DNA sequence: AATGAATGAGAATTCATTCAT
DNA sequence: GATGAATGAATTCTCATTCAT
């Protein structure tokens, strides 16, 4: 999981944050291979050796960045199931995921490219926390489905579908900008106006 | 669309195909930056200069590959609207896109990484043919929506959603393999079993 | 000396001429190293192997070009001494050299870059014909000088100086174009108007 | 003029000097295209990337070398006009240019090949300082000519002729070595003994 | 006589990383 | 702690030349 060193001075942790912020910018725009730690160091206003003092190598920086960002994926998922209104719970999840795409597109693209291209990693436990919660929620949705609180659906594909439709707006941003006549400002509202009814229709149990 | 040279000798077109095949493999796995023409040449059993004899440079190889693959994206779209059963037409499109993800995942990932990371291209008209047909179909779906043949939906977001949900199975393959309990063989059937009802519910006009 | 094969078909010798003409253009503009036989072949509208059929390799092409062009340097020199008016003879030589710079600047630059940069040549007898005539004329001028037909001057430096001042207009063309306010059309006339009086003053014997 | 970075560490300026010295040797002997930074690095006893650490690329190294050498061309020109003896002033310029050819032949050849072959440069302002002073001196000589301090001559062609005759000994060194019977030691003295009377005769106003 | 195809040597970079100060 | 300096491996591409047909 996150291997952030436990005891850091304030300065050290400020530097780490500056670096991670630049790394997010550069990695999400260029992918792992396309990004050079030089450019990242430059964006963070420091020399490369100084960057490497904080993160021992490029791969460490990259995976620390990924794991420090993972909560953005996990958090919205965690909230599912606070209330008993199953359809609404899932729709709220969709809403939160849309917000994420709007507010944190770089993080979304970072993950997308990691999954799409992926680097060989010695330790591939990076996504373990996500997977744990994923399984919990799968179970929850399955229960809801069994109990008739939502229409019967395959919970796996439901979540895949939600991830796909919501993250698409961040990850394929470039294409959508080209194709859409709408201003980007309204785009996410329109997306919500499309997706919420879709999932509502899908999930509302027929009487 | 980069036009494949019209008159090729036998050897040229054989070599081109060998190279493009290896290039698809390597580019889709590693992205543009992560792929070296060395590795591609090696995979195609030839020396790098020999490869470069057939494709003048890396970028040319890459964009020729993209454009030679673009029809896989365009073709299923083109078929929409053969019959008058609007809901069925769109569902069939979904089915075809699922098949594409199953049968041509590398091509799907190639495009995904191009849109996600994208290289600056001198001539960015690569996607023009897709965009043209896209607009045609947007118009068609809008008409269907107006005429009440499908429920009222935003055609843009409908297509984005179809692209997202279907291509997701190819593009995020790695993640899905990890998370899904199903055997991959059934995965695409299950996906279809999930998506077709979803879009049917969404699109069937309420009377 | 010139190693032009003795017996050539008409077609062969036409091809050779086409190639030499393109080679002159490319070599004089880019130097030996900067010129590629590809570009030369292209400029001559033929494939590189076909070019290499006529000239076994790049160096051969280059030195054949040099020797086929050498007469432009030699010819004006050869004429010196037709009449007995020594000053006029030399001035006429200057005039002819100026014409050469005006009419054959590429040839002049080709030689200049050969002397300036020079490639290591197995057989460095290329300039032998020039040197032979050079020595003859040195002798002639020395005699004129001894006989008082021209003012006493070092014949070597006289010829160097004539070469330098006249060829300069072809070889340093780029610089002169930048510095000179005159139109290029008049440039060579102006040069003559400057140089002839200079050499006349220099050479006219004082009584 | 490419500006040498203002603040250099000790090592930086030492390395720069070593590299520039090797670069002068290699570039002046082989021209821009014929010189490889490999050879230059080797001559400077370092690896190519180490060289490239100090000069970002080949062209930068080349143009830094040119501009650092430009003063050799400019300085002798600048001195013209210190005294009022116009003929002597110009003759002294000739003498200084001959010294330059004797003492800095590689620099002279470097410039000659740049003008002769020239590389396309993003910023072609390299020679601006020279051109500025050139124009000043043109004006001065024109004034002298108008005032009768020297015989009436075209100042442009006068300077071209001085450049041509003096630089010739450095630039065409190879040819001169072959043709001249003199030992090289005396060559420059002999050149001076030829050129000074020539320009004196040319410039001395007839009363 | 001619071309398409291929080769191997080198060229100029780039880049993650290390070292010395 | 931090930077300037350097390294070595890899990468893209060029080019003279050769080979097979």
Structure commentary:
The structure is a homotetramer of 207-residue chains. Chain A folds into two domains: 59 residues, Homeodomain-like (Arc Repressor Mutant, subunit A, Orthogonal Bundle); 133 residues, Tetracycline Repressor, domain 2 (Orthogonal Bundle), CATH 1.10.357. The longest helix of chain A has 25 residues. Chain A contains eleven helices and no strands. The model of chain A has no long low-confidence stretch (mean pLDDT 92). Chain A is mainly α. Chains A and B meet through α1, α7, α9, α10 and α11 of A and α1, α6, α8, α9 and α10 of B. The structure holds a DNA duplex (21 and 21 nucleotides).
Write the SSE topology:
The structure is a homotetramer of 207-residue chains.
Chain A (H helix, E strand, L loop, with lengths): L9 H25 L2 H7 L4 H7 L3 H12 L1 H9 L6 H18 L1 H12 L11 H20 L7 H17 L1 H7 L4 H20 L4
Helix pairs in contact in A: 1-2, 1-4, 1-7, 5-6, 5-8, 6-9, 6-11, 7-9
Chain B binds a DNA duplex (21 and 21 nucleotides) through helix 1 and helix 3.
């Amino acid at each position: 999981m996150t291997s952030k060193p436990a005891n850091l001075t304030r300065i050290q942790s400020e530097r780490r944050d500056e670096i991670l912020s630049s790394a997010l910018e550069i990695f999400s725009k260029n992918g792992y291979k396309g990004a050079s730690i030089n450019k990242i160091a430059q964006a963070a206003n420091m020399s490369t050796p100084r960057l490497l003092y904080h993160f021992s190598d490029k791969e460490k920086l990259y995976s620390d960045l990924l794991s420090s960002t993972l909560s953005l994926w996990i958090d919205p998922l965690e909230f599912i199931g606070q209330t008993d209104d199953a359809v609404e719970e899932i729709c709220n999840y969709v809403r939160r995921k849309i917000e994420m795409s709007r507010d944190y597109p770089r993080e979304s693209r970072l993950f997308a490219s990691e999954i799409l291209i992926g680097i060989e990693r010695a330790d591939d436990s990076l996504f373990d926390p996500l997977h744990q919660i994923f399984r919990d929620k799968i179970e929850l949705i399955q229960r809801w489905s069994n109990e008739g609180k939502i229409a019967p659906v395959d919970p796996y594909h439901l979540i895949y579908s939600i991830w796909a439709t919501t993250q698409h707006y961040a990850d394929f941003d470039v294409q959508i900008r080209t194709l859409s006549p709408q201003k980007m400002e309204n785009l996410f509202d329109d997306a919500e106006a499309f997706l919420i009814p879709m999932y509502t229709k899908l999930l509302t149990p027929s009487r």
